[in-house]
Sequence to fold (430 residues):
Amino acid sequence: MKREIRNLRWWITGLIFLSTVINYIDRQTLSVLAPILTRELQLSNAGYGLISMAFMIPYTAMYIVSGLLIDRYGSRLVFGIAAIWWSVASMLHAATTTVTGFGVVRFLLGTAESANFVAAQKVAAEWFPPRDRGTLNGWVQAGTTTGAVIAPPLVVWLALSYGWRFAFLVTGALGLIWAVIWFWFYRLPAEHPRITAEERELLAPSAGETRQTPPPGMRTLLGFFRYPQTWGLLLARIISDPVWWFYLFWLPKFITEKKGMSTAGMSYVVWIPYLFSDIGSVVGGWYSGRLIGRGLGSVLARQRVMVTAVAFMPLGLLLLLSPPVPVTLFLISIVLGAHSIWKTNLVTLTVDIFPRHVIATVHGIVATGGGIGGSLFTGLAGLVIDRYSYTPLLALMGILHPLAYLVVRWLVRGEANLIEVSTGEGAENA
Fold:
């Protein structure tokens, strides 16, 4: 008999955190190397924007596909295969020499990477009670920014020491190692040989959640759109996610082109805003869980933390004054930290509201909103920068979150938990 591990769900959290770190290192490698590749391939901002959009289109489309596959075949199998896929796709960047080639490999990368975040929500439903789900999602969001923190110094060092192709090979190989560990370690709570009896009892599904067939109203993709909660979460992602994608894809170029820093110098400071984002992710998830522990309803607790984060987002408008580099980094740090507080709680609302056996599907639908917003914005951003400047984009980034919050308050109201739907009720009352 294998030795039991106390609080096994937090070891699972560590695995999800690591996969997210690797996921973001793989996607960030191109943006970190963008100044080098721009010179080598003679890339315009519009061309770089199109390459970025080649990632975003399949990334967006595969959210729903990943959700359907994970709900049907399980997170262990689908998540592991996706990690292998995106790792190989990342390594294929090393064999690319043209803009078209980069577009193709970015497309392959985007095809698999969204599965990471759909699977994370499935794991949250399978392994975590409501009070802990925000903390898990905090670590998932922290993984995105930790990857963004690690990528610049790691990738620049690899590129300057061994060439940019070697950087793609090394970062891509990390995911293959993770996939081996995932297949070896991950099981459902009821099947895991290392779980304690106490934790298995804590995670046992309620009677309504044991149904394996989708509840009425959730047996087709269109059925989910009967619920205002679906629309509220979807539209909020469409509106607010472009802020993250802007700073993820364009921050290294912004720092080097508009602030006059070298590529090496950029790598020493560009991680700072992502560190603030890390902190925001963990604190935001933890604090909403603490409010729930005090007796506040889960939806209200998440929204209370979200509105606090939204209040800080307009500080990004001060970037229009073109402050010096230290002030610029400070303002972007506050914006990304607040965004991560917002995003952690917005994502967790999906797990709070919907039944666990459809979580991957509904999260795929909702997350598609983030991909749509990111795809449209990423494709247009390069054109706007080439024709005008960064100014219109910086102005837009300062107002999107308040608009998204109004949508959430309007459509995701009260404590109408859709778990009730498992008994055939709640569709009309939700």
About this structure: The chain has 16 helices and no strands. Residues 416-430 have pLDDT under 50 and may be disordered. The longest helix spans residues 8-41. The two ends are 46 Å apart (CA to CA).
